[in-house]
Amino acid sequence: MEVTNVETIPISMSLPEGEGVGDARGFGRTRATTLLRIETDDGTVGWGEAFAPGSIVAATIDELFRDRVVGMDPFDVESLADESYTDPYHFGGSVFVQSCVSAIDVALWDIIGKTVGRPVHRLLGGTECRTLTPYASTMYFTDAERPLERPVEEAVDEGFTAAKIKIGSGVEDDIERVRVAREILGDDARLMVDMNGNYRPRQAVKTAKAIEKYDITWIEEPVPPENESGYREVKSRIDTPIAAGEAHYGRFAFKRLVDDRAVDIVQPNLGRCGGFSEARLIADMATTENVAVRPHIWNSGVGMAAAVQFAASVSSYPHTRNIPEPMMVEFDRSENPLRSEILETPFDPSGGILDVPQGPGLGISVDRDAVERYRTE
Ligand SMILES: [Mg+2]
Questions:
Q1: So where are the chain's domains?
Q2: Distance from the CA of 41 to the center of ligand 1, in angstroms?
Q3: Rounded to the nearest whole angstrom, what is the distance from the C-alpha of residue 330 to the centroid of ligand 1?
Q4: Where do the DSSP E strands lie in the chain?
Q5: For the chain, what is the radius of gyration of the CA atoms?
Q6: What is the pLDDT of residues 67-117, one digit of tens each?
Q7: Could you tell me the distance, in angstroms and rounded to a whole number, from the CA of residue 264 to the centre of ligand 1?
Q8: Contact partners, residue 55, CB within 8 Å, separation at least 6
Q9: Which pLDDT score is estimated for 92?
Q10: pLDDT above 90: percentage of residues in the chain
Q11: CATH level 3 topology of 3-117+368-374
């Protein structure tokens, strides 16, 4: 069995004025990502996603990976992650190289799963896992004329039992957002906050202490991802767990986060971190040091499927079967047809439960017509 074709498919969509979404660092109405479709000589098709701009992914695949992947046995997938650091030498630490490795790796694991008839989470060493707990990623900074509490009310109405909201634009605004969200969610729901790296350590600590009484499950990216000393400073001064990883990629960056005890939770994105092979390595490093793993998901339906399969494979160490912390997966509540339309059976978080696809590979069927509707090149 060998790979015969690799196709990059950039997709994007734009929301109308008044319906954009943002965080403390930025605001936009356009979402874009890049799908990867790999085909083998027996007609098996695998899908992956590079969470990076299409033109860069296409050029990087053509320049660095096409010759290596075409003719490759998909079962050699794990050699790719290692080789990305040695050949092309010196480029492996680039976010765009690792995003391309992510897409190729995920597509090859999809092919392997389809070949052996097993879902990827079982191939990665996970035991049977049928459901996960979705959390609503919501209360974005927006240009919509809506009451602040409305998106959280909608999430609760749909059955979510956990939510993550955007903060990071000043302590007073942070407190108000958290107060409103907690009021709507009630005392039992989990509430996370995301500062998107918009603070200096002192500002992050100030907000963290001010919102501690609202029982925050984690504070995400309190300082910029590259500010490693800032993470250590914040962590030493607050009690709330800290999460980061959506902007990190590759085993070496995650090893620093884990070894430095800079965070309590790592959040690899399956379209950026290096794919399943690298994510498994990251999860093993993290759980070995008793750091939790909760994937970041702001991807298309394909990237979401990869993250769900990965999440389903992660060990619950050190918890027993009576798990006090369920594996939670991010469910972006903003309007995004790249997530909701390109799968024949979209993910459904209603009722506060997300089914883990049990079919082979990623367990999804991609709607090619929908993909073509959002294709940009
Ligand atoms: Mg985030």
A1: 3-117+368-374, 122-355
A2: 39
A3: 10
A4: 3-14, 21-22, 27-28, 30-40, 45-50, 131-138, 141-142, 162-166, 190-194, 216-220, 242-244, 265-266, 292-293, 328-332, 354-355
A5: 20
A6: 999 999 999 999 998 899 888 778 888 999 999 999 999 999 999 999 999
A7: 15
A8: 10, 377
A9: 83
A10: 88
A11: Enolase-like; domain 1 (3.30.390)
Exactly one of 90, 121, 248, 296 is catalytic; name it: 296
Residue 377 has pLDDT above 80, yes or no: no
- Please name the residue that has the structure tokens 């490759």: 72
Tell me what the pLDDT averaged over the chain comes to.
95
Determine if the pTM surpasses 0.90. yes
pLDDT tens digits for 172-194?
999 999 999 999 999 999 999 99
Report the interhelical angle of 201-211 vs 171-185 (nearest 10°). Answer: 30
Q: Is 319 known to be catalytic?
A: no
> Residue 11: what are its φ and ψ, rounded to 5°?
-130, 150
The CATH homologous superfamily of the domain defined by 122-355: Enolase-like C-terminal domain (3.20.20.120)
Contact indicator for 248, 257 with CB cutoff of 8 Å: yes
Band of residue 320 on the pLDDT scale cut at 50, 70, 90: confident
**Dist CA 82 CA 87 (whole Å):** 9
Rounded distance from Cα 158 to ligand 1 centre (Å): 22
Average pLDDT over residues 325-343: 94
Amino acid 29 reads: R
